[in-house]
Design a protein that fits this description.
alpha+beta, 58% helix, Helix Hairpins, Beta-Lactamase, 449 residues, Heat Shock Protein 90, 4-stranded antiparallel beta sheet, 5-stranded mixed beta sheet, 10 helices, rod-shaped
């Protein structure tokens, strides 16, 4: 890409220089045309003046002298010939007829004797007949040849120097600009190569807010997603291996004991195996739930407008039979309507998991649900009167497969991990307050829209 950008700059530079030369050529051509036009006008005026000096078949010397004199002042060496080709008057003759002072001044302006070049001839007419010929050529002024030579040399030198300055300067600028413009793309390529080699920590710096900068932001988001997915995969595999090891070991031990006749109570042994198989089934179900939650991280939010009060009342109504079975209460205490925009499916999974968790660890009292809004967020608060969580365990409860020590609830320690994952996906936060023996309070904060 850097080479292409550099070549593109070279094309632009070449086009600009070519345009400059063309512009100069057109200007010089127009200037030369202007000079030529002025000279033609001068010759036309001199020719008309010379023709006015012919009357009744005779030439008026005074008029011709004045004509030649003015032609000399215009920088023209003039000869006037009659119809027979004989010279009537000329610039050298007029020069000789001048007073010494005027002659000296005129010689200071022109080199009459040194003037060379081809005469251009213009016919003189009187009443449609040729009466003579006017020959004209530019005077060779003093030092004009040297000045012309110096002017041309300086002009060529100026063009060469300006070309070198513009060309070399443009090449340097093109080189730096191509490096500057291609650097973010090069960084993206190098980071992508690291990703392909398994280094998901590769990131790029978005230095601009243009398309390349936005591409860097999207790339970093993709790399972060891949890194998170890889971490989740490794963590999940490690946790699965750990959780499978114990029940499989027990099943293997019980089966071998029954086969060897070590266990006399065959039915009890089979019951133990069945219990461990049930744990495996729950574990697989929990893994499926975690996989679903992780997949939500990469899926787009399907947001809809919800009446939060009706939404929470609906979930509480569906779970009420489970709470009634343990003689526990569940109620939504707020009665005001609150309209929010959220992913209803993900929000329902979050609330159900929190309520199911509260149901497990509550033996008396019940669960209360509060909701409201603060600034640009809304919150849902779930309070229970359960056994509570020790303070030192609170930072760990959202880890996968983590269970509070000595907790014998048959859970897998996945519910709160799923809640945390989904809250993060929805760009929200979750906080926990709990005291052993008094209960817990989980508060979810989510953006209003």
């Amino acid at each position: 890409m850097k080479t292409k950008i550099f070549l593109a700059f070279l094309v632009v530079i070449f086009t600009a220089l070519l345009s400059n030369f063309l512009f100069e050529w057109f200007i010089m051509r127009d200037f030369e045309n202007y000079i030529s036009g002025v000279k033609e006008d001068q010759v036309y005026w001199i020719t008309a003046s010379a023709e006015s000096g012919y009357e009744n078949g005779q030439w008026n010397d005074a008029v011709l002298s004045e004509t030649v004199h003015w032609a000399m002042m215009m920088g023209l060496d003039i000869r006037i010939l009659n119809a027979d080709g004989h010279e009537i008057t000329s610039s050298p003759q007029i020069m000789e007829s001048l007073s010494p002072v005027m002659k000296k001044r005129m010689e200071g302006l022109f080199h009459v004797e040194k003037t060379t070049g081809v005469f251009q001839e213009y016919p003189l007419y009187h009443q449609g007949e040729i009466i003579g010929m006017l020959s004209s050529r530019p005077f060779q002024k003093k030092e004009i040849a040297e000045k012309e030579r110096v002017f041309k040399k300086r002009t060529r030198s100026f063009l060469l120097i300006s070309f070198l300055i513009a060309g070399i300067g443009s090449l340097i600028i093109a080189l730096f600009l191509s490096q500057y413009l291609s650097k973010p793309v090069t960084e993206l390529r190098m980071a992508a190569e690291k990703i392909t080699q398994g280094d998901f920590s590769a990131r790029t710096v978005a230095r601009t807010s243009d398309e390349v900068g936005k591409l860097s932001v999207v790339f970093n988001s993709m790399a972060e997603s891949l890194q998170k997915e890889e971490q989740l995969r490794k963590q999940l595999m490690s946790n699965i291996a750990h959780e499978l090891r114990t029940p499989l070991t027990i099943i293997k031990t019980q089966a071998e004991a029954i086969a060897d006749g070590v266990v006399t109570d065959r039915e009890q042994g089979l019951e133990n195996i069945s219990s461990e198989i049930g744990k495996l089934v729950r574990l697989v179900k929990g893994i499926e739930d975690v996989t679903t939650a992780e997949a939500s991280f990469f899926s787009r939010l399907e947001e809809t407008e919800l009446n939060l009060r009706e939404f929470l009342i609906g979930i509480a109504h569906e779970l009420r039979p489970l709470f009634d079975g343990k003689n526990l209460s569940i109620e939504v205490l707020d009665d005001k309507d609150l309209s929010v925009t959220a992913d209803a499916e993900k929000l329902e999974i979050i609330i159900r998991n929190l309520l199911s968790n509260a149901l497990k660890f509550t033996s008396k009292g019940g669960v209360s649900i509060f909701y409201g809004k603060e600034k640009a967020r809304f919150f849902i608060e779930i309070r229970d009167t359960g056994k509570g969580i020790p303070e030192e365990n609170i930072p760990l409860i959202f880890n996968r497969f983590y269970r509070v020590e000595k907790a014998d609830d048959g859970g897998l320690g996945l519910g709160l991990a799923i809640v945390k994952e989904l809250v993060t996906v929805m760009h929200g936060e979750i906080s926990v307050e709990s005291k052993p023996g008094e209960g817990s309070r989980f508060t979810i904060f989510l953006p209003l829209s």
